[in-house]
Structure formats: structure tokens, C-alpha cells
Amino acid sequence: MHSQKEKLKSIHFILVIALLLSLSTDSLFAQSVPEEQLEVNLQIRPRAEIRHGLFTPIIKGQESASFITQRSRLGLVYSKMNKLKIGFTTQIVNVWGNEPQVQVTGNNVTLYEAWAQFFFSSYWDIKAGRQVLSYDDERILGALDWNNAARKHDALKVGFKKNKWVLNAVAAYNQNSEKLTGDFFDNGYSQPYKSMELIYAKYQSGKNISFSILGINNAFQSRFDSLNSYLQTVGGNFYFIKNKLKTQSTFFYQTGNNHKKNSAAFNSSAWMAAIKLNYAVNNKWELNAGTDYLSGKDMNSTSATISYFNPLYGTHHKFYGSMDYFYVSSGHDNTGLVDIYLGTIINATPQFSTQFALHHFSAAALVEDAQQKSTDRYLGTEADITLAYKLIKEVTLSGGYSQMFTGPSMKMVKNISSSQILSNNQNWIWLMINVNPQIILKSK
């Protein structure tokens, strides 16, 4: 049954591509209403990786992993007279070689986006369906474009944009299937939350100052006792520009409760703060520095309060080191994080650029060693370098190298046995080519 569905998805994907290739602009819009437009976005993005300590430290004696993954996308955006937009994107994410040479089952074709947006006026609109929710620098809500599968939400969004103001209200309610009875939602293989309500506002005060506010309420349902818990996240960003200097300050606070059957609720009280400075030395060279603090919980704590900050559905790869040791794949025992970093961006030519970043990581809360004694909170230092070269407008070649120098406490927060010895060399190498042309078809 499952393979039959996958076959149907693959056939559907192929038919859509065939339709686009076979129809000319004239035939596609021969009887269309004026001011119609169709954007076709194609993407082929293979990425080769050599992993030797990505996400979590590799143990001495373990071998590196190497492979090539690929994202293949077909995206359509139809628009009509500034009143209606419809977006539709399908994608396949695969590892080279994971299927037989002669195909016997369907590929894992997924529906990444499927939304309709109606504009009531030049200020108000409503957007419903599967869509990307991306706000500010994507610290709390982001597209997660680095991940080949990326991130999407099934939601309803109402938007307002006029002069210096941008306002959004979003609501989402998730269920595993069409049901006759019951309201239980298992997030083990679905969206991570049962429901979400969101309010966002941004104000641009002249050219130099802007600020934003984001408030989110999430509901989660326990798969053990079906009780709901709630988490509220409130905060925002403040931006200031003065000549060659750009600054960004961020603060978020979390509160809420986590119910458990026949026991008192666990209350949440956590926060995060960050500040970032960017200085343009000239039009080709930029320096940046900053620090992020995400609250954690002492490893020996017996408190019922949830004091570790949850950065929710942001693009964490952008913030806490390219090797993704924190808030991505492998946990770090809810000890929070202090990240102090320095970096530079050099746009040597219009085609070639490079970035370098150095991160100093520490736990925000107390760390215990194997003997349950307090130990150093220093976790490690990571160096990241990224290179990018634009071959043509639609084709970019990029790659990078990252090295993690782990501290002794990294084993503690990653729950690695004291008897295991970490490899002396924790690194990651990647090379990616992104082919992403856009075709615009317009009515006569």
C-alpha cells in the first residue's frame, strides 16, 4: 500500500515536469486573463560530505562517513492581477546510490509547499495551506534551507503591510488523520506541535532603527497520558545602523506548563539573549562579532521548573556553529549554551566570496563529571570556513571545512561514557553545487 502511494506520487511529479516542458508560453496563456503570471522554480542541489564528528564527537577508532545527498525541486507560483497567488512545490531528497539501478519502488516525493494567498487590498492578505514561516533572522522560526528537506508548516496566515508596519497573525492545528472519534495527536511522526498561534509585528523607524516583536503559543499533547502542555515564547529584535556599523539585539522569554497525569504541572521559565555587531571595513570586507546566551538547567538540579530555553523551529545552523552540535540533531543535556564568536565576510569579486567564523562554546548551567562533581563549563571551540563561487546567475558552487576542538565537558553533555576516548580530530568537509533557474511566463 505504501509503495503504491509512492509510485503515484512519482508519476504525478513526472507529469507536472512533462507539462511544463511541452507547453509554450503562448499555448499556456492563450485564453488567459491579462496580468497573469507563472513563475517556475527548478532546483538541483547535490551535496557531498565527509563527516568525522558532525553533530556529536566521534569516538576514537570509528570511521568517517562519506556520501552525496541531493535535493530536487519543482516549484510553481501563479499570480493574477495582484489579487491571487498560488504556490506549489514538490521535492525529492535522496542519497546517491540508495536505490537500485532499475527502479522497483517509488521515490519519496513530498509536497513541500501548497498554499493560496488572496489580497483583499494593497495592505491586507490571507494565506492558507502548507507554507514556510520565516521571521527576522530565523532564530525562532525559519525555513531551514540548509537541510535538504527544509521546514514547512500547515497554517493559516493573515498579513498586513503598510508604510512602516508589517503585521502577521498565524494559526495552525494539526491532526494525524481524518478521525471519527477522539482528538489525540501523536507528534512522533508528524508536526512537533498540536496547535500553534503566532503574532508578529515589525516597525521600521527611518533608515537606522527598526524593531520586531514575536509571540508564539504552542500546544503539545503527551503520547503517554494525552494531556496537553503549553509553551509561550515572547520576545523580539532591535536593529540599529550607524554609518558602517550594524547592530542587532535579541531577547526572548519562555513560560508555560507541562502537565503530567496525577501530578503537579512542570512550569517553564527560560530565556535567551544575543547581540551581534557587523562592521563594514569597505565594500568588500565585513567583520562581525557577538554572543548568544540560552539558559539551561544544572545537571544536578531537582527543580520541577523547566529552565532550559527551546529555540523552537529556527534555522539553528546559522547561529551555533556549522557542525551543529547544539539544538539540531544531538542534544547536550539541556545545559543551555554560551556562544562567543568572531567572524569575517570577504566578497573578493562579484562571483567569489568567503566567510570565516570562530566560536567559543560553554554550557550556561552547571556541568557534572562522571563522579557527579561540578566541572568546567567550557565545551569546545569551532572554526568554520565557507567558500562560494557563482559560475553563472543560476549556478553556485560552494564548500566548507569545519573543525571542532572539544573540551572535556563535551563528553558529559553529550552523554558519552567516560571509558570512551574521543578522536583527536573532529571535522567536517562539504562541497555543494546549487542549480536554481527561474522561468517567468507572462500572459499577453
Order of helices and strands: HHEEEEEEEEEEEEEEEEEEEHEE
Helix and strand content put the structural class at mainly beta
Helix fraction by DSSP (H/I, runs of at least 4): under 10%
Which range does the strand content fall in? over 45%
How widely separated are the two ends?
45 Å
Please, how many helices? 3
Could you list the spans in which at least 5 consecutive residues all have pLDDT below 50?
1-9, 18-33
Radius of gyration, in Å, reads: 24 Å
β-strand number: 21
The best one-word shape is globular
Biggest pleated-sheet summary:
18 strands, antiparallel, barrel
- Output mean pLDDT: 90
What report would you give on this structure?
The chain has 3 helices and 21 strands. A hairpin with a 3-residue loop joins strand 2 and strand 3. With 444 residues, it is mainly beta. The protein is globular and about 70 Å long. Helices cover 7% and strands 51% of the residues. The strands form 2 sheets. It has an 18-stranded antiparallel beta barrel. It has a two-stranded antiparallel ribbon with strand order 16-17. It has helices at 2-22, 25-28, 409-413, and strands at residues 36-52, 65-80, 84-95, 109-119, 124-131, 153-162, 165-173, 195-205, 209-221, 228-242, 245-258, 266-280, 285-294, 337-346, 352-362, 367-368, 374-375, 378-392, 395-406, 426-435, 438-442.
